[in-house]
Amino acid sequence: MDKNQLGVKYMQEGNWEDAAKAFNEAISESPQDPVAYINFGNVLSAVGDDEKALKFYEKAIELDENAAAAYYSAGNVHYSQQRYDEAKNMFEKAMQKGLQSSDNYFLLGMCLVQLGQGRLATPYLQRSVELNESDVEAHFQFGLCLLQAELIDHAIEQFEKCIEIDSNYANAYYFTGTSLAYKGSTEKSISMLEKALELDPDHMLAGQARSIIEQLKN
């Protein structure tokens, strides 16, 4: 097992100190190998030293401008620091360099959501759920973007998919309920909102929506 593989093993075990040591040795043995810099950066990010991690990702990109994983990891750091423009640029670079993972599409979409560009986010979130059908958060965020675009039926499909994956996802019931109310399906809407409240009794919006719909019904 080479030093990079050993370091990854230590990371999977949560042994950050030994992981860092292994990656440091990998860099010493192969200073032109971008993989070791990316891995070391990931350790630094995992222990909260994001700004130092960025320097290792930058070094990896300096060594190999096509190192898609370095752009993706740098994007994660920027995203965690709420620097959404910078994160978007990194995730776009990762995609251009060949990274076609559901996570990269999801985070690129979420950057656009955070930047108030939900319509532009929609195709990336759609691609994310196509690549990973079990990602409940991706389905939920995709549903919100569809709702924003007034594609109600398609949004409901995504919220129902969330419920199928995770039957305790209170917000999915809430948005399904409010979407059904918009379509005039009053009884089913109330049922969904009551389920949201059953799962989360403090869900104020669900409680308010149920009260309004019941008043309108009567």
UniProtKB/TrEMBL annotation:
Keywords: Repeat, TPR repeat. It comes from Bacillus xiapuensis. The keyword Repeat applies. InterPro entries: TPR-like_helical_dom_sf, TPR_2, TPR_rpt, Ycf3. It comes from the Bacteria. TPR repeats lie at residues 4-33, 34-67, 68-101, 102-135, 136-169, 170-203. Transmembrane segments: none annotated. This is Tetratricopeptide repeat protein. Pfam families: ANAPC3, TPR_11, TPR_2, TPR_8.
